[in-house]
Write a structure and sequence with these properties.
- The complex is a heterodimer of chains A (about 90) and B (about 450).
- Chain A contains three helices and four strands.
- By secondary structure, chain A is α+β, with helices and mostly antiparallel strands.
- Chain A has one domain: ACT domain (Alpha-Beta Plaits, 2-Layer Sandwich), CATH 3.30.70.260.
- In chain A, strands 2-3-1-4 form a four-stranded antiparallel beta sheet, with helices on both faces.
- In chain A, α1 packs antiparallel against α2.
- Chain B has about 450 residues and is α/β, with parallel strands linked by helices.
- Chain B has two domains: about 170 residues, Anaerobic Ribonucleotide-triphosphate Reductase Large Chain (Alpha-Beta Barrel); about 230 residues, Anaerobic Ribonucleotide-triphosphate Reductase Large Chain, CATH 3.20.70.20.
- The N and C termini of chain B lie far apart (about 50 Å).
- In chain B, the strands form two sheets. In chain B, strands 1, 2, 3, 4, 5, 6, 7, 8, 9, 10 and 13 form an eleven-stranded mixed beta sheet that branches. Chain B has a two-stranded antiparallel sheet with strand order 11-12.
- Classes of the chains: A alpha+beta (about 90), B alpha/beta (about 450).
- Chains A and B meet through β2, β3, α2, β4 and α3 of A and α1, α3 and α9 of B.
Chain lengths: ~90, ~450
């Protein structure tokens, strides 16, 4: 399974999760986990999605999220899960 | 499954603490480019580099985008050129032509440095080694992206003092030949003792004869991450300090291991080693001096600095070796003065001297690195500095090196701007007492007694 970690950092506003979920749904990426916190007034969200059956190449998927980042006005990053597993799991 | 705290910890390191993969270096053997015709050798070198490294920079860029980890440099190391040019080079100018070929090809491939314009002369100098060494001032003046190194000693062979004497003169001539550019030629030239075969970092990278045809070696970094971790344990005991560095080094190295494996798989090349060095850059927050100061030393260079650096170097290795089965290269902490904002500040305020740096090189991973000295410094004095460093390396069975810039027309109080990763260097004072008679004795210093282990 190709897991991708999407993180969002920015000012809390309505519709952030809705818009990212819709984007994932539209490209057939299955949401596996989602969690969020507010740290010092800043909205932090992490979503793990399975991109195995995504209808677009990985680079287009990340570019799409980048466009969404500009539209919503929050910082969205999209990274393959392995970097986190390597760093935090033995 | 990974949790939100872990994800944000990683991204905090990347976004705010300068965590990066410092270099993905492709080692390429050039033995199959040897011929007795210079044109033919240059053509073969260009072709082989393009064939092997054509996809190096784009692949590293793709990995960087997919995992969200910056990969700063894409580089190449090659077989020491004194070996490759031995049968076709008759003059120093012939070696300059090979250097120009390497430079042009490196630029075409989008790699910012290519290392291996090198000679290994620890026991003796071949005619080819001598020609390459003689070619260095011109070769480094007419090229931009090629790095050169000369290994003048080892624990097993002792120190070749004839080569040490010659390199003092070559460093001076290289400075003179590039005096219009703050003597930048010397920033691309390092004199080593116990040089490793698999070092991915410049200027000392070359692909030793023990290595495979093509290999990927990765240098990880992250002084900013270690410093940020230490900020959180101010006042804690040495045990806490050591554990913190170890854990941080482990995390940093794991990222390097992942990038190395990805790069090797995608390029269809053997994975070599991870070099887990803390390599500073001139950027604020990316400094090894800052780590030492975060440990409780008022200014880098003050008493306690050598002990702090020894602790840092050792804990980085201990954390790193658990993170990767194949650790090599230099691995430890680098202390290049011009490339470290904290070192520059310490040198400028008088806390850090060359003599203290020399003591620090006994416990760090390399040596006297990127130090500007007055242009009036004699060749014999530079040879003396090289000999001292080589002796530290030889006796302590470690790599040591000298990359020093005798800046023509500048003196203590002046500084030079090298730009980019090479940074800015204040001109530091050198002892005014000479060593000409010692340096000009001729011959070599024998290997130390503890080298006889068979």
């Amino acid at each position: 399974m190709n897991k991708t970690v999407i993180t969002v950092v920015g000012r809390d506003t309505t519709g952030i999760i809705a818009k990212i979920s819709t984007f994932a749904y539209r490209h057939n990426a299955n949401i596996l986990d989602i969690s969020q916190t507010i740290r010092m007034g800043i909205f932090n969200m992490m979503m793990i999605v399975d991109t195995d059956r995504s209808d677009i190449p990985y680079e287009e998927f990340t570019d799409g999220l980048k466009a969404l980042s500009a539209e919503i006005g929050v910082d969205i990053r999209c990274q393959k899960e392995e970097i986190f597993n390597m760093m935090h799991r033995i | 499954m990974i949790n939100i705290e872990e994800v944000f910890e990683t991204n905090e390191m990347i976004l705010h603490e300068n965590l990066d993969v410092r270099t993905v270096t492709m080692g390429i053997s050039l033995f199959d480019c040897v011929s007795d015709n210079l044109d033919e050798t240059c053509r073969k070198i260009g072709e082989k580099l393009k064939r092997c490294a054509g996809q190096l920079a784009p692949t590293a860029d793709r990995i960087s985008r997919e995992f969200g980890i910056p990969i700063i440099n894409k580089r190449i190391s090659v077989t020491p050129i004194s070996l490759i040019g031995a049968s076709c080079c008759r003059t120093p100018e012939d070696f300059v032509r090979i250097c120009v070929t390497l430079d042009r090809t490196a630029k075409e491939l989008g790699v910012n440095f290519l290392g291996g314009f090198s000679a290994i002369v620890s026991k003796g100098v071949t005619p080819s080694d001598r020609l390459l060494m003689e070619s260095l001032p011109e070769a480094l003046a007419v090229t931009d992206n090629v790095c050169a190194s000369v290994n003048v000693g080892s624990t097993k062979t002792g120190i070749n003092m004839d080569a040490v004497q010659l390199m003092g003169e070559i460093v001076k001539r290289t400075a003179q030949r590039t005096k219009d550019r703050d003597c930048i030629g010397c920033a691309k030239l390092v004199v080593l003792c116990n040089a490793p075969d698999d070092n991915p970092f410049m200027a000392g990278a070359f692909l030793g004869v023990t290595q495979p045809d093509v290999v990927i070696n990765v240098g990880v970094s992250g002084p900013g991450v270690v410093k940020a971790a230490l900020e959180k344990c101010r006042g804690a005991s040495f045990q806490v300090l050591c554990d913190t560095i170890k854990k941080t080094a482990f995390k940093i190295t794991r990222v390097g291991q992942m990038v190395a494996q990805e790069a090797a798989n995608r390029l269809g090349v053997q994975f070599g080693i991870i070099d887990l060095s803390l390599a500073p850059t001139p950027a604020i927050g990316d400094s090894v001096a800052d780590i030492i100061e975060a440990m409780g030393i008022e200014k880098c260079g003050a008493p306690g600095t050598t002990a702090a650096l020894a602790l840092l170097n050792d804990q980085v290795k201990k954390g790193g070796v658990m993170a990767s089965s194949y650790v090599g290269g230099l691995s430890g902490a680098f202390i290049p003065v011009s490339e470290d904002s904290g070192m520059i500040a310490a040198a400028e305020c008088g806390a850090l001297t060359i003599e203290k740096l020399e003591a620090m090189t006994c416990v760090c991973s390399v040596g006297l690195d990127m130090i500007a000295i007055p242009g009036t410094t004699s060749a014999a004095t530079i040879s003396g500095i090289i000999a001292d460093e080589a002796a530290i390396g030889m006796v302590n069975q470690k790599t040591t090196a000298v990359r020093i810039l005798p800046v023509v027309g500048k003196d203590v109080g002046d500084s030079i701007e090298l730009g980019g990763l090479l940074g800015r260097a204040p001109v530091m004072p050198v002892s005014r007492f000479g060593c000409e008679e010692f340096i000009s004795r001729g011959g070599s210093i024998p290997a130390p007694i503890h080298s006889f282990k068979n």
